[in-house]
Amino acid sequence: MTGSQLQMILPKFPSCSYLENNPSSKQNILERLEGGEVVLGDGSYCATLEKRGYVKAGHYTPEASVENPEAVEALAYEYARAGADITQTFTYYSRDVGTPDDVNLTCGEINQGACNIAKKIAKEKGTIVAGGIVQTGVFSTKRDKKEVHEELREGLEVLIQNDIDLIIVEFFGNIIEMEWAIELALSYNKPVAATMCIGPKGDTDGVQPEECAVRMARAGAHIIGTNCKFDPFISLETMRRMKAGLDAENLHPYLMCQPLGFRTPDVNHFGGFHLPEFPFAMEPRQITRIEAAQFAREAYHLGIRVIGGCCGIESHHIRAMAEELAVERGGLPEGSRKSDHDLSTLKKKGDMGRDEFKMKGSKEYWQSLIPCTGRPLSSALNRTMNPEVVDRSVLN
């Protein structure tokens, strides 16, 4: 292939256009979506900070927001620089339980520290401050709406006191509890995004994705979709089904998808946290930046306009998504100044006759590459009983 042929298949970006987040940018996500923007979320905090030594596996609580605020702030800054339009508070739950034995901080102190960090990043980088609430402990033992609301209200208290820009009702596995959570979140007069941690087989009661999506929309959520537990391509399969259900009922909320950053086509109904490799051997499954870009493009074509990630999605993945959607977003993220986003550096080395770079200046090369594990005896897939959608996802 000649140099001119290679250049023809390189990605096209607006020349010299970098989208630096600025503090004067609009922070109302609904206005931005209505204006046609593609809004990028940030990525993993718990999983990434655990690898860096600031979160204890098994607990996964965010006391680092107080104990090591500089580490949390640096990660939030990385995401914003990579192109994230949203900075999510590194908060958790609503009760003073679950932290390691040597932590003597209250849930309120931790959550306030997290809000302080998110607001600082937003002030500097112009990001949307989002705070999340997750499924409750009480729902699994007693499906009582009043008690669920009480528990969720405690989690929302510090977020509302800090006047966050967006409430994310996330990581809910049952549509009944999700409906109750949406009802409560809407009472605070904030934009509400609702995302379920389900795969194509539906929620914990077997309610299918199409019905879950319709019920979330009818409950009033402004943005709906999926997050966590499943990989990008399983999540897209779930989103396709959700969108089909919404279209059939002529419902048109904005769509959001924040999947795992690991390839998990071989998981069962309960997702990636049930893999034998979790939590200390997941690295071989982590998606590449090329796969992150592929996910972002497929999500965009599906009509998803809030695109981000959950556990395993790191700043280079968010940057890859931003670069893939640079034309749609009007430019490149600040972090692309140090990125070979157009492959020109690799192409130049290849044109100099260096064999190890011969084809690496081609986007086609990277998109068709099947990465190796380097482990001769590694299994391609876990032998999970009744895998979720291995027949589809494994082919992506």
**Major sheet description:** 8 strands, parallel
Q: CATH top level?
A: Alpha Beta
Helix content: 40-55%
Give the full name of the CATH homologous superfamily: Homocysteine-binding-like domain
CATH architecture verdict: Alpha-Beta Barrel
Q: Give the strand content.
A: 5-15%
Structural class: alpha/beta
- The rough form would be described as globular
Average pLDDT taken over every residue:
92
Supply Rg: 21 Å
Low-confidence stretches: 1-11
H and E string: HEHEHHHEHEHHEHEHEHEHEHHEHHH
User: How many domains comprise the coordinates?
Assistant: 1
Concise overview:
The protein is an alpha/beta fold. The protein has 17 helices and ten strands.
Provide key terms for this protein.
396 residues, alpha/beta, TIM Barrel, 8-stranded parallel beta sheet, 17 helices, disordered N terminus
